[in-house]
């Protein structure tokens, strides 16, 4: 009987994957994933069998992985970042209910929150909240409540999926909600294409971020009340008395 | 002039570090860190120069790293998990203000939130908050407010530093606060020694977790209202309609 590893490949570059992930991709029979992510790893694991489905075909992609495992193959289902953060780990375990004989193991990776934080400096050294602005699978009211609560309790906040063609004004809406509790001067940062070609970081105040357009390859960081800019980097102190 | 990499080595095992981290530890001149973490990597990077300080000597450890860099060395300052999540990245950038000539780069790693999530299944597939229960550097009132806000907005919650000798009842206090908004049946999980020898995962309800003693090597996961147990794993659905 086969086995499935649900694997986070990290932000994008080969070097940002863990050694365990690389070993699994090296030793598995077939690599399954969204076309774009498979393309990111293909050159490093030549000769493997690759199976892809386009975006929005997530459930189909999971079934595909289980069908390969049923044939006795060792399968790696790859996700960008960490497979358990807005990734396929949850859905794989849900669909796995129909395949109780197949073992599923989730292998962690570097998610955009920590990958992007490293590029900006150290914005997440204290408590933080991770929120996706995509309302495709979540009611906007839930997102709104989480933005308000996290802002009120002075969390640093990381926003995934801050924008898309249909949601071009969602970051603005999110900033307006956070501005009810966070100062307009709050230090913010964005990172585009974390760990990939074209990586760009940029610092803003929350007031400026509100009027900024970002794309779907951007991860957005909003500081807490203590976050500051040091030497061009975004730093949230943990509180060591220097 | 030297350079400093602030490096997250992941939860503990060599395999859970990224390829980039391994390359940096391989090529640097000196590895600086808390004694316990240096011991975790020592065998894999034999022949390096190692400098250690005990716990609570964080600022001294940072100064030590900068002094080595001033001598022209390439320095890796290592942290467990991710260097930017309750790690040394923030403090290094703060102390770096006094060493503007030394470049500091933060290299991300797998933090306990995602490392432990993989062991439990997929508890963080939707929005989540990361909160440390240590009040050594943070007023307890701030921690309390964050616990209440995150619970009220139905975040999944990860607790770092849930316990210590002096804080043996903090997890109970935290659970009581979260129980104001989260049901006693909320699915929870703990992971001890993530990715290391002696790794143990355990599932609870929030009501049960309240009466459980954990140690300082434990990371605690509290589900949101949708979190369920599937096949012995903790799963927070993202919301795909199956």
Could you explain how this protein is built, in words?
The structure is a homodimer of 242-residue chains. Helices cover 30% and strands 26% of the residues of chain A. Chain A has a five-stranded parallel β-sheet with strand order 3-2-4-1-5, sandwiched between helices. In chain A, strands 7-8-11-9-10 form a five-stranded mixed β-sheet, sandwiched between helices. A three-stranded mixed β-sheet of chain A has the order 6-13-12. By secondary structure, the first copy, chain A, is α/β, with parallel strands linked by helices. Chain A starts with a strand and ends in a 7-residue tail after the last strand. At the A-B interface, helix 1, helix 4, strand 5, helix 5 and strand 6 of A face helix 1, helix 4, strand 5, helix 5 and strand 6 of B. Strand 7 of chain A pairs antiparallel with strand 7 (128-132) of chain B, so a sheet runs across the interface.
- Please state the structural category of chain A: alpha/beta
Please state the average pLDDT score of chain A.
Answer: 94
The main pleated sheet of chain A reads as: 5 strands, parallel
Helix content range of chain A = 25-40%
User: How would you write the strand order of the largest sheet of chain A?
Assistant: 3-2-4-1-5
Largest interface: A-B, 77 and 77 residues
**Which stretches of chain A are poorly predicted, pLDDT < 50 over at least 5 residues?**
none
Q: Termini distance of chain A? A: 57 Å
**Total DSSP E strands of chain A:** 13
Order of helices and strands of chain A: EHEHEHEHEHEEHEHEEHEEE
Morphology of chain A = elongated
- Radius of gyration of chain A over all CA atoms, rounded: 19 Å
Quaternary form: homodimer
């Amino acid at each position: 009987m086969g086995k499935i590893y649900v694997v986070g490949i990290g932000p994008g570059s080969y070097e940002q994957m863990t050694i365990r992930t690389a070993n699994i991709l090296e030793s598995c029979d077939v690599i399954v994933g969204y076309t774009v992510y498979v393309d990111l790893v293909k050159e490093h694991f030549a000769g493997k069998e690759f199976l892809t489905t386009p975006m929005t075909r997530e459930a189909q992609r999971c079934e595909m992985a289980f069908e390969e495992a049923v044939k006795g193959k060792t399968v790696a289902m790859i996700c960008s970042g960490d497979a358990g953060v807005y990734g396929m780990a949850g859905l794989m375990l849900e669909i796995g209910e129909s395949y109780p004989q197949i073992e599923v193991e989730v292998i962690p990776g570097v998610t955009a929150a920590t990958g992007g934080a490293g590029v900006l400096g150290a914005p997440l050294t204290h408590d933080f909240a991770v929120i996706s602005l995509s309302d495709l699978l979540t009611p906007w009211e839930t997102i709104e409540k989480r933005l308000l609560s996290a802002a009120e309790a002075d969390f640093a906040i990381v926003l995934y999926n801050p924008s898309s063609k249909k949601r071009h004004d969602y970051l603005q809406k999110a900033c307006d909600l956070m501005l009810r509790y966070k100062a307009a001067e709050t230090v913010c940062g964005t990172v585009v294409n974390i760990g990939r070609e074209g990586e760009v970081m940029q610092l803003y105040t929350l007031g400026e971020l509100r009027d900024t357009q970002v794309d779907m390859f951007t991860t957005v960081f909003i500081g807490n009340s203590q976050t500051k800019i040091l030497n061009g980097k975004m730093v949230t102190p943990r509180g060591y008395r220097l």
